[in-house]
Amino acid sequence: PELNVAYRMSTDEYYELTPYATDLEENWGPAPGNLNSDGQNLVVYGKEFGNVFIGVQPSFGYEGDPMRLLFAKSASPHHGFAAYYTYLEKIFQADAVLHFGTHGSLEFMPGKQVGMSGTCYPDRLIASLPSAYLYAANNPSEATIAKRRSYSATVSYLTPPAENAGLYKGLKELKELISSYQGLRENEARGPAIVNSIVSTAWTCNLDKDIKDLPALETYSAADDTPEHRDDIVGKVYAQIMQIESRLLPCGLHTVGVPPTAEEAVATLVNIAQLDRPEDKIESLPRVIAASIGRDINDIYRGNNAGVLDDVELSDKVTEAARAAIRALVNQSTDSNGRVKEVKSVFDEFGSFFGGMLGQKKPYIQAIIDAGFPKVEEERLAPLITYLEFCLKQIVANNELGGIMELLNGQFLMPAPGGDPIRNPDVLPTGRNMHALDPSSIPTTAAVEVSASVVEKLLEKLKADNDGMFPESIAFTLWGTDNIKTYGESLAQVLALVGVRPVSDSLGRVNKVELIPLEELGRPRIDVVVSCSGVFRDLFINQMNLMDRGIKMAAEADEPLEMNFVRKHAIASAEELNVSLREASCRVFSNSAGSYSANVGLAIENGGWEDEGQLQDQFLTRKGFAFNADKPGMMEQQADLFKSALKTVDVTFQNLDSSEISITDVSHYYDSDPTKVVQGLRDDKKKPMSMMADTTTANAQVRSLSETVRLDARTKLLNPKFYEGMLSTGYEGVREIQKRLRNTMGWSATAGEVDNFVFEDANGVFIEDVEMQQRLLDTNPNAFRDMVTTFLEANGRGYWETSEENIERLQELYAEVEDRIEGI
User: 293 with 286: CB under 8 angstroms?
Assistant: First the structure.
């Protein structure tokens, strides 16, 4: 795109005003270089509006350079990047800088992890400029990096409200067929015919990939089947459909300073109400509704997950009742414009008195009764409703623009925790200065309990898929933000697999671990290889110490090798690498200090990679720095040890903990995925199983990576509710759609877990539809060109098999879009 040039800085002026400019020549040669440069001058992109300058922060600069992406340590900023901040401070002479949106490059430049010195690049770049940073409320970990490394005060902003993904096309038709079957299941003439249609439509929607025992289309006849087996088939299809329909989907983009509408507030409150909060003595809404018919909600979830038709129906009915109750609660505070200005309490004494005299039920109770649960207990719901009214006030409060102005006026901005507003509504209202948590407090007792249940489900699923055998080693990815939001759930999962227990002191600080005896554990100790994000390393170095000590404790335990896979593999590594057992049991890895990510995402986003081998080398080189509790404060490159640990891995594993960010929304998840890396290192070249734990709802589930990719594609990329919501926001929405497509291809590159139909159906939605094609082209031609390029690249790299006709159409389209962009 044609960016406006605000200023051209000569090299003489640049060297005179930028004291560290010569230090950049080691990586980039003499200025001006070829980035943010016209060949003679350094170019600053942006535009002045009176005393406000709106500029575009330069990129890292090495995105398309395979060699730089491979370096174990990140390169310094390029001359164009340095010139940009020199311009802000010394030429435009800004009184303050507002970094807008999550996140930029400044805070991730090389230097120390904390306590910047004068030679650290974030310190050199921001220099004396006061920095305010508008940051997503759900990302406290990277906001903390922005505070520590670029001296920024943060102002939190709301993420888009999450709604249910809904159903469309064949999926919608399936639900209608299931609804017909429920009414006619006893009818021996109509019932079997509907089941045949359900099976046929399920195959058309590619649900055979998710329902392993879906009957074969050619040979199945429902008329010859038993009623029980017909129910079983319909139950499994229904469970799959409900999983897609109820998936939470952030719709559109958030506009700063615009609070959610009443309808958007309903969507957020429904999600808040589905979680039990034992620490506040609050039961979830689904739990209280289920109890009114003598059922435990967890039993209903289990039956639903197993595809038991009655439980799938009941789960759907409970969900609808909960939604109706929340809508009734919000409606009484909603004005004629569809917004909540003032929250009216249902416990208002005057209204309650007259309502009681007239025999009226409270609106939310009446809604639950009308949904088919007449015995629901109003008294049992009172604590939850009081809490939800408080949450509603926080959701619709509006202080984002006010918060920005307070900072720019040099005033104190109130602090507030960051994190997931569903799990922790104290994150709201936004517009406050965000902080994380006390690192020594995690994992909390609640996180340890939740993690035990996830680990149990994970091992059950892995045993079922592996002839009853336990996996010997699991490769884990730990993220900073996720562990803040969940108070250390994934950290606790690592400890649980190894069979060690975190121990807290009298002040609640978790600073010790103890070995769980094998008799109590009741299974072998599973080996782990933990890849920590750079942000996790910066925020939770003490927890890395905790994990390393726990793993070493397991490796040194005198136990049978068939019951202690940590010890088994550490002994083998020690012999292979000729090192001590303690050194061979290092299992916690990350980037070198001051470096972040494996750069796999950068390579895929910019197309600057030759083959998968390059991506795998990047991962091994950049993520192969070992943490060792015996050498505190050091991250040593241990490539051989990293490879030795990875080559025994049977399963790769990650966690999804929030509906706001899923595996195709950002590149981070596949950037740190070692699936194909492990395949290349294993002696038998067998690809490890890839699993995902999904704790985004009260009904926590463990799925395979391919299942999760399909679920994400069906609820986002291929879902009209998602892409129409994005398109309604204009040019940025097209870029967001293209980003999901590119990130989907990222999973093909790192794990090979994307089904062909995902690309084929996406091509049908965005390319074959001429009207859609034109909308994308008119709204954002550059993003549309990237979309066409991604389809062609997916085909060229062997990730998508399609017809010659489709490829020719894409090639012609590419030429057309190029001409449009060039103005021909």
Answer: no
Whether residue 33 contacts residue 26, with contact meaning beta carbons closer than 8 Å, is answered with: no
**Residue appearing with tokens 């690809």:** 687
Nearest to 305 by CA among 212, 238, 247, 226: 238
The pLDDT value recorded for residue 64 is 60
Q: Are 304 and 312 in contact (CB under 8 A)?
A: yes
**Mean per-residue pLDDT of the chain:** 92
The single residue listed with the structure tokens 């807008």 is 100
What single letter denotes the amino acid at residue 573?
Answer: S
- Core vs surface per residue 371-393: b (16+ CB within 10 A) or e: bebeebeeeebeebbebbbebbe
Q: What is the crossing angle of helices 489-498 and 541-556, to 10°?
A: 10
* Whether the Cβ atoms of residue 53 and residue 47 lie closer than 8 Å to each other: yes
Instruction: Give the rounded distance of the alpha carbon of 245 from its chain centre.
Output: 19
CB 492 within 8 A of CB 547: no
Q: How many CB atoms lie under 10 A from the CB of residue 414?
A: 11
Of 45, 159, 65, 57, residue with least CA distance to 108: 57
Question: What does the pLDDT read at residue 686?
Answer: 95
Residue with tokens 């994308």: 776
Q: What is the dihedral of CA 780, 783, 789, 793, to 10 degrees?
A: -150
Lowest mean pLDDT of 67-76, 131-140, 155-164, 303-312, name the range.
67-76
- CA 625 vs CA 494, 598, 622, 674, 729: distances in Å: 19, 12, 7, 15, 42
Q: Is the model's pLDDT at 578 over the cut of 80?
A: yes
Cα 801 to chain center, whole Å?
28
Any long-range contacts for 760-765 (C-beta under 8 Å, 24+ apart)?
Answer: 760/800, 760/802, 761/713, 761/718, 762/713, 762/717, 762/718, 762/791, 763/791, 763/802, 763/806, 763/810, 765/717, 765/718, 765/723
Joined tokens for residue 575: 């012999």
Q: Is residue 286 within 8 Å of 324, Cβ to Cβ?
A: no
List beta partners, residue 677: none
**Confidence band of 223 (pLDDT split at 50, 70, 90):** very high
> CA-to-CA distance for 221 and 233, rounded, in angstroms?
12
β-strands 651-656, 689-694 pairing: parallel
Asked whether 214 and 203 are in contact (CB, 8 A), the reply is yes
Does pLDDT of 632 surpass 60?
yes
Is residue 244 within 8 A of residue 722, CB to CB? The reply is: no
Give the pLDDT mean for 796-821: 95
User: What is the dihedral angle through the alpha carbons of 704, 705, 708, 710, rounded to the nearest 10 degrees?
Assistant: -110
Is the Cβ–Cβ distance between 745 and 789 less than 8 Å?
Answer: no
What are the tens digits of pLDDT across the range 34-44?
999 999 999 99
Q: What is the DSSP string of 187-219?
A: -TTHHHHHHHHHHHHHHHTTGGGT-TTPPPTTT
Q: Read off the pLDDT of residues 750-801 as tens digits, 9 standing for 90 and up.
A: 999 999 999 999 999 999 999 999 999 999 999 999 999 999 999 999 999 9
Length, in residues, of the chain: 824
Q: Assess whether pLDDT exceeds 70 at residue 116.
A: yes
Give the pLDDT mean for 706-727. Answer: 95
Residue carrying the six token digits 């070198």: 592
DSSP structural state of residue 697: S
For every residue of 421-476, which 3-state class applies, written as one string? CCCCHHHCCCCCEEECCCHHHCCCHHHHHHHHHHHHHHHHHHHHCCCCCCCCEEEE
Is the previous residue joined to 77 through a cis bond, with omega within 30 degrees of 0? Answer: no
Select from 692, 712, 711, 710 the least CA-distant residue to 702: 692
DSSP 96-112: -EEEESS--SGGGSSS-
Q: Two tokens at 262? A: 């009443």
Q: Using one digit for the tens of pLDDT, what is the confidence trace for 282-331?
A: 999 999 999 999 999 999 999 998 899 999 999 999 999 999 999 999 99
